[in-house]
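Collaborator request, handled under Task 6.
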Amino acid sequence: MSEKIIEVSNLSYVVKQRRILQSVSFDIEAGEYLSIVGPNGAGKSTLLKCLIRILKPMYSKISIHGKNIKFFSQKELAKIVSYVPQMQDNLLSITVNDFVMLSRYPYQRPFAPTNSQDRMIVNEAMEITDTNFMADRYLYSLSGGERQRVLIAAALAQEPKILLLDEPATFLDPGQQEDIQNVLSRINLQQKTTIVAITHDYNRAALVSHRILALVKGEVVFHNDSEEFMKKDVLENIYNKSFIFIKHPEIESSLAFMKESI
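Structure tokens returned to the collaborator:
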């Protein structure tokens, strides 16, 4: 990994005179798995929405492949970056296959029917996420884990170079969380898709990420390799809590736990 696929410089975002993000600068390499961590209210979701242009910061330069995102058309941007938001309850009365097919819009002309290329890409996305067996089911009939895999399938159907995810495993049981993580790791390793994922699970972030970005009160307080992240002074600076470390029983890594949770 050497090419910088995303570059963010001096990003600040203000809402009603409240500064959500403050002079945020970092880069992401092509093919990287970057986890974004930090306490609630740190500005993590706001940052992700700025990267996909859902929110438009007053001060910043955000570039993808060296081009400022404000110069991309919406369809151009959608062919490069896809976004999986936090899990929603307001689901459409639509089948899984039709929902994933909607993500082919950047490649389709208005009112044009789907073609064999669209169907092939959708089928591949559903195979990667193990959702093809539920193609004819309706979204509202799915469990939380199934629904999240469908959202990821829809994002993949855009054929993105970059996949942004806002807490993809939140509210899922441990087994479902593991399934989602396996899907994301497979996408990153096999598809070479750059992944940027918000998570509250700092242990999992350290195990699966190439680098970790930590925000506190809208500012970057850490942006480095995952090995450097699992250190007492780093975690205590981010979360303002005391930690103890336990050696992972199967790999050469440590797990961190807040002392109050032991």
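The cover message to the collaborator said: "The two ends are 38 Å apart (CA to CA). Residues 174-190 form the longest helix (17 residues). Please let us know whether this matches your experimental observations."
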